[in-house]
């Protein structure tokens, strides 16, 4: 096949997105209202600093591990100034149980220094400036926008990437293109209810559309999902890539 990401394939994908969008939007938003996970950082009214800390701690670990230390961490380090002043021992101690304490220590120190020195101690509310914060990638920046600043932005972590690759298996199988997966998510995002849509997609990816043995019977996206239609059979021949890294091994967010 020549350039598989050429115009023809793209138009097929666009048609598929337009056809499935309503089901995905409704399914994800309803999932949030009916079965959404509750974490302290998801509460409305959290400050930008508090949401930023949550998104930083959530990198490469589980929500459960972060929820066990989150409030205590904020109690010890309630502001960027506190983070900048703290020493390594105190910070590492506060992060016990989350993992990667050394890396998180370096990251949090760099982040607090940058925000205090460059942004005047205020977390910026636009994508370009959020992306300049040390350690904040595409996921983290978009999470800040949708979850704190109430600005429509689609978040794609490794779980959401897997969901999208399965739902659009006919077009995304083996693409390995993070930007394309992000683009698909952008096109699916509702303007109203973007926060609930994102929470729903994150939760479906984490709980329902598991890397191995996805629970398609419980999934609100099942009627729109290629994988649920005949993808299982198609992929049975070569099940490589159906693990944590997604169908084709795409790594979107560790
Ligand atoms: S129907 Fe199955 S494969 Fe498709 S998104 Fe839902 S859980 Fe994942």
Could you provide a short overview of the structure?
By secondary structure, this protein is mainly alpha-helical.
The total beta strand count reads 0
Structural class: mainly alpha
Average residue pLDDT: 89
Net shape: elongated
Named CATH architecture of the largest domain: Orthogonal Bundle
Low-confidence stretches: 1-9, 239-254
Question: How many structurally independent domains?
Answer: 2
CATH topology of the largest domain, by name, is Endonuclease Iii, domain 2
Distance between the termini: 31 Å
Description:
The chain has 254 residues and is mostly helical. The protein folds into 2 domains: 7-37 and 154-236, Helix-hairpin-Helix base-excision DNA repair enzymes (C-terminal) (Endonuclease Iii, domain 2, Orthogonal Bundle); 40-148, Hypothetical protein, domain 2 (Endonuclease III, domain 1). It contains 13 helices and no strands. The longest helix has 29 residues, at 7-35. The relative contact order is 0.15. The model is unreliable at 1-9 and 239-254 (pLDDT under 50). Iron/sulfur cluster binds at residues 163, 166-167, 208-209, 214-216, 219, 221-222, 225, 227-228.
């Amino acid at each position: 096949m020549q350039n598989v990401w050429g115009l023809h394939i793209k138009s097929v994908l666009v048609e598929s997105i337009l056809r499935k969008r309503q089901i995905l939007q409704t399914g994800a938003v309803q999932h949030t209202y009916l079965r959404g996970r509750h974490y302290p950082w998801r509460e409305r009214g959290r400050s930008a600093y508090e949401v930023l800390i949550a998104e930083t701690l959530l990198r490469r670990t589980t929500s459960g591990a972060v929820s066990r230390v989150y409030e205590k961490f904020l109690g010890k380090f309630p502001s960027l100034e506190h983070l900048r002043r703290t020493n390594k021992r105190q910070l590492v101690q506060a992060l016990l149980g989350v993992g990667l304490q050394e890396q998180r220590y370096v990251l949090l120190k760099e982040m607090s220094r940058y925000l205090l020195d460059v942004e005047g101690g205020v977390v910026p509310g636009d994508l370009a400036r959020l992306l300049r914060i040390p350690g904040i990638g595409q996921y983290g920046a978009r999470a800040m926008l949708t979850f704190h600043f109430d600005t429509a932005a689609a978040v794609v972590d490794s779980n959401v990437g897997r969901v999208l690759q399965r739902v659009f298996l006919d077009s995304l199988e083996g693409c390995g293109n993070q930007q394309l997966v992000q683009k698909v998510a952008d096109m699916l995002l509702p303007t109203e209810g973007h926060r609930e849509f994102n929470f729903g997609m994150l939760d479906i990816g984490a709980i329902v559309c598991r890397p191995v043995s996805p629970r398609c019977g419980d999934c609100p996206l099942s009627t729109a999902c290629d994988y649920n239609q005949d993808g299982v059979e198609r992929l049975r021949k070569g099940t490589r890539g159906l693990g944590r890294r997604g169908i084709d091994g795409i790594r979107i967010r560790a």
